[in-house]
Protein backbone atom coordinates (compact mmCIF):
# COMPACT_ATOMS: atom_id res chain seq x y z
CA UNK A 1 0.00 0.00 0.00
CA UNK A 2 1.25 3.47 -0.82
CA UNK A 3 2.41 5.66 2.06
CA UNK A 4 0.16 8.36 0.63
CA UNK A 5 -3.00 6.61 1.71
CA UNK A 6 -4.43 4.83 4.71
CA UNK A 7 -7.39 2.59 3.97
CA UNK A 8 -9.90 0.94 6.23
CA UNK A 9 -12.67 -1.37 5.11
CA UNK A 10 -15.78 -0.69 7.10
CA UNK A 11 -19.40 -1.61 6.94
CA UNK A 12 -20.44 -1.62 3.27
CA UNK A 13 -17.87 0.85 2.11
CA UNK A 14 -14.19 1.69 2.13
CA UNK A 15 -12.99 4.63 4.18
CA UNK A 16 -9.89 6.03 2.49
CA UNK A 17 -7.60 8.44 4.28
CA UNK A 18 -5.99 10.50 1.55
CA UNK A 19 -3.55 13.38 1.62
CA UNK A 20 -4.02 16.79 -0.05
CA UNK A 21 -1.64 19.69 -0.48
CA UNK A 22 -0.17 21.19 2.68
CA UNK A 23 -2.83 23.11 4.63
CA UNK A 24 -4.92 23.58 1.54
CA UNK A 25 -8.10 25.55 2.00
CA UNK A 26 -11.19 23.49 2.73
CA UNK A 27 -14.63 24.08 1.24
CA UNK A 28 -17.24 25.79 3.36
CA UNK A 29 -20.16 23.64 4.56
CA UNK A 30 -21.99 22.54 1.46
CA UNK A 31 -23.94 19.72 -0.06
CA UNK A 32 -21.54 16.99 -1.16
CA UNK A 33 -21.84 13.71 -3.03
CA UNK A 34 -19.44 10.82 -3.25
CA UNK A 35 -16.37 11.73 -5.25
CA UNK A 36 -14.99 8.17 -5.61
CA UNK A 37 -11.46 9.58 -5.55
CA UNK A 38 -9.83 6.56 -3.89
CA UNK A 39 -7.37 4.60 -6.01
CA UNK A 40 -8.16 1.36 -4.17
CA UNK A 41 -9.54 -1.53 -6.13
CA UNK A 42 -12.44 -3.05 -4.21
CA UNK A 43 -15.55 -5.10 -4.56
CA UNK A 44 -18.42 -3.62 -6.56
CA UNK A 45 -20.94 -1.38 -4.81
CA UNK A 46 -18.44 -0.35 -2.14
CA UNK A 47 -18.80 3.26 -1.04
CA UNK A 48 -15.71 5.44 -0.69
CA UNK A 49 -15.24 8.61 1.30
CA UNK A 50 -12.11 10.67 1.85
CA UNK A 51 -10.43 11.60 5.13
CA UNK A 52 -8.01 14.47 4.73
CA UNK A 53 -4.59 15.01 6.27
CA UNK A 54 -3.14 18.47 6.72
CA UNK A 55 0.43 17.97 5.56
CA UNK A 56 2.55 15.68 3.40
CA UNK A 57 4.55 14.64 6.50
CA UNK A 58 1.49 13.21 8.23
CA UNK A 59 1.10 10.14 6.07
CA UNK A 60 4.64 8.80 6.34
CA UNK A 61 5.02 9.57 10.03
CA UNK A 62 1.56 8.22 10.73
CA UNK A 63 2.17 4.93 8.96
CA UNK A 64 5.44 4.40 10.85
CA UNK A 65 3.73 5.24 14.12
CA UNK A 66 0.73 2.98 13.56
CA UNK A 67 2.95 0.13 12.40
CA UNK A 68 5.04 0.50 15.57
CA UNK A 69 2.04 -0.20 17.83
CA UNK A 70 0.75 -3.20 15.89
CA UNK A 71 -0.72 -5.76 18.31
CA UNK A 72 0.42 -9.40 18.06
CA UNK A 73 -1.69 -11.58 15.81
CA UNK A 74 -4.68 -12.99 17.69
CA UNK A 75 -6.19 -16.40 16.91
CA UNK A 76 -9.46 -16.77 14.99
CA UNK A 77 -12.38 -17.96 17.06
CA UNK A 78 -12.77 -21.75 17.18
CA UNK A 79 -15.19 -23.22 14.62
CA UNK A 80 -17.53 -24.48 15.83
CA UNK A 81 -17.25 -22.03 18.71
CA UNK A 82 -16.09 -23.53 22.00
CA UNK A 83 -15.50 -21.31 25.03
CA UNK A 84 -13.47 -24.16 26.52
CA UNK A 85 -10.69 -23.51 23.98
CA UNK A 86 -10.29 -19.83 24.92
CA UNK A 87 -8.24 -18.18 27.66
CA UNK A 88 -9.48 -18.62 31.20
CA UNK A 89 -8.01 -16.44 33.95
CA UNK A 90 -8.93 -18.80 36.80
CA UNK A 91 -7.03 -21.69 35.16
CA UNK A 92 -3.96 -19.54 34.42
CA UNK A 93 -1.13 -18.87 36.86
CA UNK A 94 2.08 -16.97 37.52
CA UNK A 95 5.22 -17.69 39.54
CA UNK A 96 8.01 -15.49 40.86
CA UNK A 97 11.44 -16.33 39.43
CA UNK A 98 13.69 -16.81 42.47
CA UNK A 99 17.01 -14.99 42.64
CA UNK A 100 20.19 -16.16 44.35
CA UNK A 101 20.78 -14.00 47.39
CA UNK A 102 17.27 -12.55 47.27
CA UNK A 103 16.36 -9.05 46.12
CA UNK A 104 17.58 -5.61 47.04
CA UNK A 105 16.40 -2.13 46.20
CA UNK A 106 17.63 -1.38 42.69
CA UNK A 107 17.26 -4.97 41.48
CA UNK A 108 14.53 -6.29 39.21
CA UNK A 109 11.95 -8.96 39.96
CA UNK A 110 10.74 -11.27 37.20
CA UNK A 111 7.47 -13.19 37.03
CA UNK A 112 6.58 -15.99 34.58
CA UNK A 113 2.96 -16.28 33.48
CA UNK A 114 1.28 -19.28 31.86
CA UNK A 115 -2.16 -18.83 30.32
CA UNK A 116 -4.51 -21.79 30.03
CA UNK A 117 -7.89 -22.47 28.49
CA UNK A 118 -11.04 -23.60 30.30
CA UNK A 119 -9.89 -27.21 30.01
CA UNK A 120 -6.67 -26.32 31.82
CA UNK A 121 -4.52 -26.83 28.73
CA UNK A 122 -1.64 -24.37 28.11
CA UNK A 123 -2.38 -21.76 25.46
CA UNK A 124 -0.15 -21.98 22.39
CA UNK A 125 -0.61 -18.49 20.94
CA UNK A 126 -0.22 -14.91 22.11
CA UNK A 127 -2.16 -11.68 21.84
CA UNK A 128 -3.82 -11.62 25.28
CA UNK A 129 -3.73 -8.30 27.14
CA UNK A 130 -2.20 -8.54 30.62
CA UNK A 131 -1.10 -5.93 33.14
CA UNK A 132 1.00 -6.35 36.28
CA UNK A 133 1.51 -4.43 39.49
CA UNK A 134 3.90 -4.66 42.45
CA UNK A 135 2.50 -3.13 45.62
CA UNK A 136 2.56 -2.82 49.39
CA UNK A 137 -0.68 -1.39 50.78
CA UNK A 138 0.78 -0.68 54.24
CA UNK A 139 3.58 1.41 52.73
CA UNK A 140 1.28 3.10 50.23
CA UNK A 141 3.62 1.77 47.51
CA UNK A 142 2.91 0.56 44.00
CA UNK A 143 4.54 0.33 40.60
CA UNK A 144 3.56 -1.19 37.26
CA UNK A 145 5.52 -3.97 35.62
CA UNK A 146 6.54 -4.37 32.00
CA UNK A 147 4.76 -7.34 30.43
CA UNK A 148 6.26 -9.19 27.47
CA UNK A 149 4.21 -11.53 25.29
CA UNK A 150 6.23 -14.51 24.05
CA UNK A 151 3.49 -15.37 21.54
CA UNK A 152 3.15 -18.95 22.79
CA UNK A 153 0.78 -18.59 25.73
CA UNK A 154 3.53 -17.52 28.13
CA UNK A 155 4.41 -14.03 29.32
CA UNK A 156 6.99 -12.45 31.61
CA UNK A 157 6.52 -9.39 33.79
CA UNK A 158 9.51 -7.42 35.09
CA UNK A 159 9.35 -4.96 37.99
CA UNK A 160 11.91 -2.44 39.24
CA UNK A 161 12.40 -2.77 43.01
CA UNK A 162 12.09 0.75 44.38
CA UNK A 163 11.35 0.34 48.10
CA UNK A 164 12.59 -1.66 51.07
CA UNK A 165 10.17 -4.19 52.59
CA UNK A 166 7.67 -6.63 51.17
CA UNK A 167 6.04 -6.39 47.75
CA UNK A 168 3.01 -8.29 46.50
CA UNK A 169 2.75 -9.30 42.84
CA UNK A 170 -0.54 -8.85 41.00
CA UNK A 171 -1.20 -10.02 37.43
CA UNK A 172 -4.45 -9.04 35.72
CA UNK A 173 -5.96 -10.61 32.60
CA UNK A 174 -7.59 -7.57 31.01
CA UNK A 175 -8.73 -9.04 27.68
CA UNK A 176 -8.28 -12.48 26.16
CA UNK A 177 -6.74 -12.83 22.72
CA UNK A 178 -10.07 -14.20 21.48
CA UNK A 179 -11.96 -11.13 22.71
CA UNK A 180 -9.37 -8.90 21.04
CA UNK A 181 -10.05 -10.77 17.79
CA UNK A 182 -13.68 -9.66 18.20
CA UNK A 183 -12.67 -6.07 19.06
CA UNK A 184 -10.51 -5.88 15.93
CA UNK A 185 -13.34 -7.19 13.77
CA UNK A 186 -15.88 -4.81 15.29
CA UNK A 187 -13.64 -1.82 14.52
CA UNK A 188 -13.08 -2.99 10.95
CA UNK A 189 -16.72 -3.80 10.23
CA UNK A 190 -18.59 -1.33 12.44
CA UNK A 191 -16.41 1.76 13.01
CA UNK A 192 -19.61 3.83 12.88
CA UNK A 193 -21.28 1.85 15.68
CA UNK A 194 -21.65 5.12 17.56
CA UNK A 195 -23.61 7.67 15.56
CA UNK A 196 -24.53 11.27 16.13
CA UNK A 197 -27.30 13.57 15.06
CA UNK A 198 -27.90 17.28 14.67
CA UNK A 199 -31.00 19.44 14.62
CA UNK A 200 -31.41 21.79 11.69
CA UNK A 201 -33.77 24.68 12.36
CA UNK A 202 -35.18 27.61 10.43
CA UNK A 203 -38.06 29.53 11.91
CA UNK A 204 -40.65 27.03 13.12
CA UNK A 205 -39.26 24.15 11.03
CA UNK A 206 -36.88 21.64 12.71
CA UNK A 207 -35.41 18.55 11.08
CA UNK A 208 -33.01 16.00 12.60
CA UNK A 209 -30.27 14.33 10.59
CA UNK A 210 -27.60 11.68 11.15
CA UNK A 211 -23.96 12.84 11.41
CA UNK A 212 -20.55 11.16 11.64
CA UNK A 213 -16.93 11.27 10.54
CA UNK A 214 -17.84 9.41 7.38
CA UNK A 215 -21.26 8.81 5.83
CA UNK A 216 -22.45 6.93 2.76
CA UNK A 217 -23.04 9.64 0.18
CA UNK A 218 -25.03 7.24 -2.00
CA UNK A 219 -27.84 7.22 0.58
CA UNK A 220 -28.41 10.97 0.47
CA UNK A 221 -26.62 14.26 -0.22
CA UNK A 222 -24.17 15.26 2.50
CA UNK A 223 -23.56 18.49 4.36
CA UNK A 224 -19.80 18.93 4.64
CA UNK A 225 -18.81 20.52 7.97
CA UNK A 226 -15.06 20.01 7.59
CA UNK A 227 -13.32 22.54 9.82
CA UNK A 228 -11.71 25.20 7.65
CA UNK A 229 -8.66 25.59 9.90
CA UNK A 230 -7.83 22.12 11.25
CA UNK A 231 -9.15 20.07 8.34
CA UNK A 232 -11.12 17.85 10.74
CA UNK A 233 -13.89 16.15 8.79
CA UNK A 234 -17.50 15.97 9.90
CA UNK A 235 -20.59 15.24 7.81
CA UNK A 236 -24.35 15.16 8.24
CA UNK A 237 -26.98 13.93 5.84
CA UNK A 238 -28.67 16.96 4.33
CA UNK A 239 -32.11 17.59 5.81
CA UNK A 240 -35.04 17.06 3.48
CA UNK A 241 -36.04 20.70 3.20
CA UNK A 242 -33.58 22.85 5.17
CA UNK A 243 -30.16 24.11 4.12
CA UNK A 244 -26.90 22.83 5.60
CA UNK A 245 -26.20 26.17 7.27
CA UNK A 246 -29.24 25.80 9.57
CA UNK A 247 -27.53 23.23 11.83
CA UNK A 248 -27.91 24.18 15.51
CA UNK A 249 -27.06 21.21 17.79
CA UNK A 250 -25.07 18.00 18.32
CA UNK A 251 -25.93 14.83 20.26
CA UNK A 252 -24.70 11.23 20.46
CA UNK A 253 -26.88 8.32 19.32
CA UNK A 254 -25.76 4.83 20.39
CA UNK A 255 -26.55 2.06 17.93
CA UNK A 256 -26.74 -1.67 18.58
CA UNK A 257 -23.69 -3.83 17.93
CA UNK A 258 -23.75 -6.97 15.84
CA UNK A 259 -21.97 -9.64 17.86
CA UNK A 260 -23.46 -13.05 18.54
CA UNK A 261 -24.21 -14.66 21.90
CA UNK A 262 -21.07 -16.84 21.74
CA UNK A 263 -18.85 -13.79 21.23
CA UNK A 264 -20.48 -12.06 24.20
CA UNK A 265 -19.21 -14.92 26.39
CA UNK A 266 -15.68 -13.63 25.78
CA UNK A 267 -16.44 -10.47 27.79
CA UNK A 268 -17.33 -11.84 31.24
CA UNK A 269 -15.93 -9.65 33.97
CA UNK A 270 -14.15 -11.65 36.66
CA UNK A 271 -14.00 -14.77 34.49
CA UNK A 272 -12.15 -13.93 31.29
CA UNK A 273 -12.03 -10.13 31.51
CA UNK A 274 -10.50 -8.00 34.29
CA UNK A 275 -9.69 -11.12 36.33
CA UNK A 276 -6.72 -11.61 38.65
CA UNK A 277 -4.45 -14.55 37.86
CA UNK A 278 -3.48 -16.74 40.83
CA UNK A 279 0.07 -17.43 41.94
CA UNK A 280 1.79 -20.80 41.97
CA UNK A 281 3.61 -20.57 45.28
CA UNK A 282 4.31 -17.24 46.96
CA UNK A 283 3.06 -13.98 45.49
CA UNK A 284 5.19 -11.86 47.85
CA UNK A 285 8.85 -10.94 47.70
CA UNK A 286 11.02 -9.42 50.46
CA UNK A 287 13.21 -6.54 49.31
CA UNK A 288 16.35 -5.74 51.33
CA UNK A 289 18.06 -2.34 51.48
CA UNK A 290 20.45 -1.45 48.71
CA UNK A 291 24.13 -2.25 49.40
CA UNK A 292 26.91 -1.40 46.98
CA UNK A 293 26.45 -1.91 43.28
CA UNK A 294 23.19 -3.37 42.02
CA UNK A 295 22.05 -4.61 38.65
CA UNK A 296 21.08 -1.83 36.27
CA UNK A 297 17.31 -1.52 35.98
CA UNK A 298 16.29 -2.08 32.38
CA UNK A 299 12.56 -1.44 32.78
CA UNK A 300 11.88 2.00 34.16
CA UNK A 301 8.30 3.14 34.61
CA UNK A 302 7.42 6.82 34.59
CA UNK A 303 6.96 6.79 38.36
CA UNK A 304 5.73 4.89 41.39
CA UNK A 305 3.78 5.33 44.62
CA UNK A 306 5.38 5.49 48.02
CA UNK A 307 3.68 6.82 51.15
CA UNK A 308 0.55 7.22 48.98
CA UNK A 309 2.37 9.91 47.02
CA UNK A 310 3.31 9.75 43.34
CA UNK A 311 7.05 9.95 42.72
CA UNK A 312 8.04 10.52 39.09
CA UNK A 313 11.24 8.90 37.84
CA UNK A 314 12.40 11.93 35.93
CA UNK A 315 10.47 15.14 35.48
CA UNK A 316 9.57 17.62 38.22
CA UNK A 317 9.25 16.53 41.82
CA UNK A 318 5.60 16.34 42.89
CA UNK A 319 4.72 18.56 45.86
CA UNK A 320 1.62 18.18 47.99
CA UNK A 321 -0.66 21.21 47.65
CA UNK A 322 -3.20 22.40 50.19
CA UNK A 323 -5.76 25.15 49.59
CA UNK A 324 -3.36 27.95 50.54
CA UNK A 325 -0.54 26.69 48.36
CA UNK A 326 -2.93 26.16 45.42
CA UNK A 327 -3.84 29.85 45.62
CA UNK A 328 -0.19 30.84 45.97
CA UNK A 329 0.74 28.78 42.93
CA UNK A 330 -2.05 30.04 40.67
CA UNK A 331 -1.91 33.69 41.73
CA UNK A 332 -1.67 35.85 38.61
CA UNK A 333 -2.16 32.88 36.29
CA UNK A 334 -4.62 31.68 33.68
CA UNK A 335 -5.37 27.95 33.53
CA UNK A 336 -7.10 26.72 30.37
CA UNK A 337 -8.33 23.12 30.20
CA UNK A 338 -9.60 21.42 27.07
CA UNK A 339 -10.82 17.89 26.33
CA UNK A 340 -13.22 15.31 27.68
CA UNK A 341 -14.81 14.73 31.09
CA UNK A 342 -11.62 13.20 32.50
CA UNK A 343 -9.99 16.61 32.05
CA UNK A 344 -13.07 18.39 33.36
CA UNK A 345 -12.42 16.55 36.65
CA UNK A 346 -9.32 18.72 37.17
CA UNK A 347 -11.30 21.92 36.65
CA UNK A 348 -13.99 20.79 39.09
CA UNK A 349 -11.44 19.67 41.69
CA UNK A 350 -9.43 22.91 41.66
CA UNK A 351 -12.40 25.26 41.59
CA UNK A 352 -13.79 23.57 44.71
CA UNK A 353 -10.51 24.31 46.49
CA UNK A 354 -10.54 28.05 45.75
CA UNK A 355 -13.24 29.77 47.86
CA UNK A 356 -12.97 33.15 46.14
CA UNK A 357 -13.59 31.88 42.63
CA UNK A 358 -16.68 33.30 40.95
CA UNK A 359 -18.16 30.93 38.36
CA UNK A 360 -19.71 32.20 35.15
CA UNK A 361 -21.37 29.07 33.76
CA UNK A 362 -25.09 29.73 34.22
CA UNK A 363 -25.94 28.90 30.62
CA UNK A 364 -23.30 26.20 30.07
CA UNK A 365 -24.03 22.50 29.72
CA UNK A 366 -22.87 20.40 32.73
CA UNK A 367 -20.87 18.06 30.50
CA UNK A 368 -19.32 20.35 27.95
CA UNK A 369 -19.16 23.85 29.35
CA UNK A 370 -17.73 26.25 28.45
CA UNK A 371 -16.84 27.07 32.07
CA UNK A 372 -15.18 30.19 33.40
CA UNK A 373 -14.13 30.90 37.00
CA UNK A 374 -12.33 34.04 38.21
CA UNK A 375 -10.70 35.08 41.49
CA UNK A 376 -10.30 38.85 41.18
CA UNK A 377 -8.42 39.20 44.47
CA UNK A 378 -5.65 36.80 43.44
CA UNK A 379 -5.91 37.42 39.68
CA UNK A 380 -6.70 33.77 38.87
CA UNK A 381 -8.71 32.68 35.85
CA UNK A 382 -9.70 29.12 35.01
CA UNK A 383 -11.57 27.81 31.98
CA UNK A 384 -12.76 24.47 30.63
CA UNK A 385 -14.16 23.61 27.22
CA UNK A 386 -14.89 20.19 25.75
CA UNK A 387 -13.33 19.07 22.48
CA UNK A 388 -15.09 18.94 19.12
CA UNK A 389 -16.76 15.94 17.47
CA UNK A 390 -16.84 13.02 17.79
CA UNK A 391 -18.11 13.91 21.26
CA UNK A 392 -20.49 11.54 23.05
CA UNK A 393 -22.65 13.93 24.99
CA UNK A 394 -26.16 15.12 25.64
CA UNK A 395 -27.55 17.65 23.20
CA UNK A 396 -25.49 20.83 23.10
CA UNK A 397 -25.66 24.02 21.10
CA UNK A 398 -23.39 24.00 18.08
CA UNK A 399 -21.61 27.15 19.29
CA UNK A 400 -20.22 25.16 22.24
CA UNK A 401 -18.62 22.53 20.01
CA UNK A 402 -15.09 23.76 19.28
CA UNK A 403 -11.91 21.94 18.21
CA UNK A 404 -9.04 22.09 20.72
CA UNK A 405 -6.54 23.18 18.07
CA UNK A 406 -8.65 26.22 17.23
CA UNK A 407 -8.98 27.14 20.91
CA UNK A 408 -5.20 26.90 21.38
CA UNK A 409 -4.67 29.25 18.45
CA UNK A 410 -6.82 31.85 20.24
CA UNK A 411 -4.63 31.91 23.37
CA UNK A 412 -1.99 34.55 23.94
CA UNK A 413 0.06 32.23 26.14
CA UNK A 414 3.06 33.23 28.20
CA UNK A 415 4.80 32.35 31.48
CA UNK A 416 1.57 32.86 33.46
CA UNK A 417 -0.51 30.61 31.22
CA UNK A 418 -1.10 26.90 31.89
CA UNK A 419 -2.78 24.67 29.30
CA UNK A 420 -4.09 21.17 30.11
CA UNK A 421 -5.36 18.96 27.27
CA UNK A 422 -6.96 15.52 27.56
CA UNK A 423 -8.47 13.98 24.42
CA UNK A 424 -8.92 10.20 24.27
CA UNK A 425 -12.10 8.74 25.82
CA UNK A 426 -14.47 9.52 22.92
CA UNK A 427 -12.31 8.02 20.16
CA UNK A 428 -12.27 4.33 21.15
CA UNK A 429 -14.81 3.18 18.57
CA UNK A 430 -13.25 4.97 15.60
CA UNK A 431 -10.36 3.89 13.36
CA UNK A 432 -6.99 4.84 14.79
CA UNK A 433 -6.31 7.21 11.91
CA UNK A 434 -9.15 9.46 13.06
CA UNK A 435 -7.53 9.83 16.48
CA UNK A 436 -4.07 10.31 15.00
CA UNK A 437 -5.37 13.11 12.79
CA UNK A 438 -6.90 14.85 15.83
CA UNK A 439 -3.68 14.62 17.83
CA UNK A 440 -1.62 15.95 14.94
CA UNK A 441 -3.89 19.00 14.65
CA UNK A 442 -3.45 19.62 18.39
CA UNK A 443 0.31 19.08 18.19
CA UNK A 444 0.62 21.70 15.46
CA UNK A 445 -1.42 24.14 17.51
CA UNK A 446 0.76 23.45 20.58
CA UNK A 447 3.84 24.11 18.46
CA UNK A 448 2.43 27.43 17.28
CA UNK A 449 1.53 28.39 20.86
CA UNK A 450 5.00 27.58 22.21
CA UNK A 451 6.61 29.40 19.30
CA UNK A 452 4.78 32.68 19.96
CA UNK A 453 4.79 32.29 23.79
CA UNK A 454 7.69 30.01 24.83
CA UNK A 455 6.99 30.28 28.56
CA UNK A 456 3.55 28.65 28.31
CA UNK A 457 3.12 25.47 30.36
CA UNK A 458 1.49 22.72 28.27
CA UNK A 459 0.37 19.49 29.93
CA UNK A 460 -1.11 16.54 28.01
CA UNK A 461 -3.16 14.02 29.97
CA UNK A 462 -2.76 10.37 28.98
CA UNK A 463 -5.60 7.83 28.98
CA UNK A 464 -6.41 5.55 31.91
CA UNK A 465 -7.87 2.10 32.54
CA UNK A 466 -11.53 1.79 33.51
CA UNK A 467 -14.18 -0.59 34.76
CA UNK A 468 -15.63 -2.66 31.91
CA UNK A 469 -18.59 -4.81 30.98
CA UNK A 470 -19.40 -6.39 27.63
CA UNK A 471 -21.09 -3.30 26.19
CA UNK A 472 -18.52 -0.74 27.32
CA UNK A 473 -15.75 -3.03 26.04
CA UNK A 474 -17.15 -2.96 22.53
CA UNK A 475 -17.19 0.83 22.51
CA UNK A 476 -14.26 1.78 24.71
CA UNK A 477 -12.31 -1.19 26.08
CA UNK A 478 -8.99 -0.84 27.91
CA UNK A 479 -7.42 -2.48 24.88
CA UNK A 480 -8.77 0.28 22.63
CA UNK A 481 -7.58 2.88 25.13
CA UNK A 482 -4.10 1.31 25.30
CA UNK A 483 -3.64 1.64 21.54
CA UNK A 484 -4.65 5.29 21.62
CA UNK A 485 -2.44 5.95 24.61
CA UNK A 486 0.55 4.64 22.68
CA UNK A 487 -0.25 6.94 19.76
CA UNK A 488 -0.65 9.95 22.06
CA UNK A 489 2.74 9.33 23.68
CA UNK A 490 4.42 9.02 20.30
CA UNK A 491 2.81 12.19 18.92
CA UNK A 492 3.67 14.31 21.97
CA UNK A 493 7.33 13.38 22.36
CA UNK A 494 8.17 17.05 22.72
CA UNK A 495 10.58 18.65 25.21
CA UNK A 496 8.19 21.55 25.80
CA UNK A 497 5.24 19.34 26.79
CA UNK A 498 4.65 17.44 30.04
CA UNK A 499 2.79 14.14 29.84
CA UNK A 500 0.50 13.74 32.84
CA UNK A 501 0.91 10.02 33.55
CA UNK A 502 -2.72 9.07 34.19
CA UNK A 503 -2.25 5.54 32.79
CA UNK A 504 0.37 4.38 35.28
CA UNK A 505 -1.05 6.45 38.14
CA UNK A 506 -4.36 4.58 37.84
CA UNK A 507 -2.85 1.16 37.13
CA UNK A 508 -0.34 1.30 40.01
CA UNK A 509 -2.92 2.49 42.55
CA UNK A 510 -4.92 0.18 44.81
CA UNK A 511 -8.26 1.85 44.02
CA UNK A 512 -10.50 0.17 41.40
CA UNK A 513 -10.20 1.24 37.78
CA UNK A 514 -12.74 3.84 36.73
CA UNK A 515 -13.18 5.95 33.60
CA UNK A 516 -13.34 8.91 35.99
CA UNK A 517 -10.64 8.20 38.60
CA UNK A 518 -11.75 8.77 42.22
CA UNK A 519 -10.91 12.00 44.07
CA UNK A 520 -7.83 10.51 45.75
CA UNK A 521 -6.16 9.90 42.39
CA UNK A 522 -7.41 13.19 40.92
CA UNK A 523 -5.79 14.99 43.87
CA UNK A 524 -2.44 13.37 42.99
CA UNK A 525 -2.83 14.34 39.32
CA UNK A 526 -3.68 17.93 40.26
CA UNK A 527 -0.59 18.00 42.48
CA UNK A 528 1.42 16.96 39.42
CA UNK A 529 -0.13 19.77 37.34
CA UNK A 530 0.60 22.35 40.04
CA UNK A 531 4.12 21.02 40.65
CA UNK A 532 4.91 21.55 36.97
CA UNK A 533 3.34 25.00 37.13
CA UNK A 534 5.08 26.02 40.36
CA UNK A 535 8.07 23.72 40.97
CA UNK A 536 9.18 25.84 43.92
CA UNK A 537 5.81 25.70 45.71
CA UNK A 538 3.96 23.10 47.78
CA UNK A 539 2.28 22.99 51.13
UniProtKB/TrEMBL annotation:
SUPFAM superfamilies, per database record: SGNH hydrolase
Segments of this protein annotated with the region Disordered: 22-44
Organism lineage: Eukaryota, Metazoa, Chordata, Craniata, Vertebrata
Name listed for the protein in its UniProt record: Neurexophilin and PC-esterase domain family, member 3
Polar residues composition bias: residue spans: 32-44
Domain NXPE C-terminal intervals: 310-534
Pfam families: Neurexophilin, NXPE4_C
